[in-house]
Amino acid sequence: MSKKLSKEELIELVNKICNPKLSDEEVSEYIDILEDNVPHPAPSYLIFWNDEDLSPKEVVKISLAYKEEK
């Protein structure tokens, strides 16, 4: 099992995902890594489809703070 990324590494990863010069394959790979490192079930939604324009730091904060309702 690979080690979890730090908060700073996750922010950098979200910055990479937001780079318009990346190929779809690269973005998909980075999203998979992000999903493996946060409890939020769909962190890509926060990046691409959220009504608010969240910064990478805000995306990571929300993704890490997510708790599934029971």
From TrEMBL:
One Pfam family cited in the UniProt record for this chain: Colicin_Pyocin
InterPro entries on file: Colicin_E_sf, Colicin_pyocin
Any one GO molecular function term: toxic substance binding
Keywords: Bacteriocin immunity
Gene3D superfamilies noted in UniProt: Colicin E immunity protein
SUPFAM superfamilies: Colicin E immunity proteins
Name the record gives this protein: Colicin immunity protein / pyocin immunity protein
Gene Ontology BP annotations: bacteriocin immunity
The family this protein is said to belong to: Belongs to the colicins ColE2/ColE8/ColE9 and pyocins S1/S2 family.
